[in-house]
Amino acid sequence: MGHGHDHLHDHSHAAAAGGDLPEALDLSVPTAELSSSDASRRRFLLGAGLLGAGAAASVLAQPGAAEAAGLPHTHDQVGGGTDKGGFRWLAGDHHIHTQYSSDAQYRVLDQAQKGHAYGLDWLVITDHGSATHAKIGVDKVNPDIVKTRSALKGLLTFQGLEWNIPAAEHATVFVHPGKNEVAVLKQFENAYDGSLLPSTNTAAQNEAMAIAGIQFLGEQVRKRKIDGALFFANHPARRGIDSPHEIRNWRDADPTVAVGFEGAPGHQAAGIPAPNGRGGARGYYDNNPSAASFPGYPLESYRTWGGFDWMTATVGGLWDSLLAEGKAWWITVNSDSHVNYLDQTGRGPGSDFDANGKYNDPVYTGTINTSAGDFWPGYYGRTNVGASSFSYKAVMDGLRAGRVWVDHGRLIKNLDARVRVTGDRREHTGTPLGGVLQVKRGTSTELVLDIDLQDVPNWAGFVAALKRVDVIVGTVTGPVADKDTYTTPNTRVVKSFEVTESSGRITFTYQLGRLDKPFYLRVRGTDGNRTQPGLLGTAVDPYGPQLDVVGAADPWGDLWFYTNPIWVLPR
């Protein structure tokens, strides 16, 4: 980029275009031929999980800001999205069910039309993995998805499924559209879905099958049967059965496929208090430990915190322990839409799901459903992806690269976060979300955060107001000795910015100091309505999200946004 310091994603882009990769990053150069400094640099990156099999594709080899600069303005574009920071930000939802799920009811087109109307640019249809779905549904839903792609040109509609992870919870798995999308998903589901495996399998055998399933998806990409595949673990703390070592093993199985988990679950409407709503728990997080649960998790992990999963909401917790290792692991939000709050339809009469693999088309009932736990896609939560264009590949590339921020209730309009060498004021310079900035030790760096405040009502009818922005920083310490580690000692909120403006654009700059050790940072923001000290104490997180109480968890009562991390490493 010609401004005197290195961006690893720019080096990787240069290599793809025929340029040279630094020798420390080029694994075709034997370590014995490296200088001592380059050899040390390579050892650190390998140990931190930022280099090696698959890691370059998930962290290092991402498009730089320069590559994305000069995108056309929104009014010249096909599809939706907004331009900011040199990227086209596309809102989406990767966890949606239809009449091809045994516990849902809507047509693909119903979900897609509503999602698009509520502001989404992309979504993934993820009906439940099951014997019926594997046998019939994965084939039968595809024509509906293909028709939806044709009917809604401004919406990118992916086909996927909700995988029953062997020995664990659920996950979104989806692939790039193409002639083999059904065949690959069908083969994957039949071979690796937990509901179809022998009941005599041990936990160790099932954990190995989960790893094999992720590796299978990566192999289909390498064989060019499909152009991409992604995995996100869904509602990871809901039942306590996604242990820390399993999460690490999924990521390590293939970091180009297994890239993250839900930072906040769907089913947020389940928390609307009675009599207006179900009066339950946000996300259906109303469980207690079972024999299958990881015994180390605290009781508080079985509830949401400000609507977010405990693994994400706890500063210094499980997500941070992964980031402190240098592992590329991203967060998302979604609807998990099955049956939606205030809807007036029901399953078509005469349905035989077991025989047909679907319910008949929904019919109007004239009854308003106040007990449903879900919102329509796009109504409440958004996963915002920084893409290079409006395309399936660009969305998958942006997700894989971690150029993602999430919010509830349209808390903000847009944001751009970058880390750059202190004093570099050129537009779009610096390293964006998901990126790795590498500079000489002793170099001063700064975070620049540019936020467009909300000025239009959300779908609940009010204009959300951002009141505080927190900067969270953690030291990169490398691999953990115990893969069931779920805390990290050196991550904390280092700065809080109070927001007094009610509209327009605000910019915060935070000085990160002279680089003396590798670190990462991430950002969150809130309307400030409900806060409490984090689980690890006020010195770590003085004003974090509040523990949600079953029966009194209005999802509109507190709104948050979270970004994915940026790393800063010495070279």
TrEMBL record:
InterPro entries per the UniProt record, alphabetical: PHP_dom, PHP_domain, Pol/His_phosphatase_N, Pol/histidinol_Pase-like, TAT_signal
SUPFAM superfamilies named among the record's database cross-references: PHP domain-like
Membrane-crossing residue ranges in chain numbering: none
Chain ranges of the Polymerase/histidinol phosphatase N-terminal domain: 92-167
Pfam families membership: PHP (PF02811)
Signal sequence, start to end: none
Name of protein: PHP domain-containing protein
